[in-house]
Amino acid sequence: MLNLHISKTVVLRVGMSCEGCVGAVKRVLGKMEGVESYDVDIKEQKVTVKGNVTPDAVLQTVSKTGKKTSFWEAEPTAPAVATA
Fold first, then answer.
1. Is DNA-binding included in the keywords of this UniProt record (predicted)?
2. For a tag site, which of 12, 33, 72, 81 has the least CB within 10 Å?
3. Residues 14, 73: Cα–Cα separation, whole Å
4. pLDDT tens-digit readout, 42-82
5. Is there a contact between 36 and 52 (Cβ–Cβ < 8 Å)?
6. Torsion sign over Cα 40, 45, 47, 48
7. How far apart are CA 12 and CA 35, in angstroms?
């Protein structure tokens, strides 16, 4: 039988300002099913999660902390300039 366990890496940008914020993020990730490991970097405002998880589920779980959370790839982009 094939093992269909596929480990994914999800990287989020999370607005954390103190160790309490970091603790809240670690707490919700520690309870989340499928999470194998995670790294919380307060300086970079970056949370990296590895495991058998979906990006949306990780985003929703971390959002429960009340912190501003988005996918790392979602860089703020300048509005497109229309040319006439």
1. no
2. 81
3. 12
4. 999 999 999 999 999 999 999 999 999 999 975 555 555 55
5. yes
6. negative
7. 14
Kindly report the CA angle at 29 between 1 and 26, in degrees rounded to 5? Answer: 145
DSSP state of 3: -
Tell me which of 84 and 31 has the higher pLDDT. 31
Range picked from 2-16, 34-48, 64-78 for highest mean pLDDT? 34-48
Residues 31, 49 contacting (CB under 8 angstroms): no
Alpha helices in 1-44 (DSSP H): 19-31
**Secondary structure E strands in 1-84:** 8-14, 35-41, 46-51, 69-71
**Tokens read off for 53:** 């998880």
Confidence of residue 22 (pLDDT cuts 50, 70, 90): very high
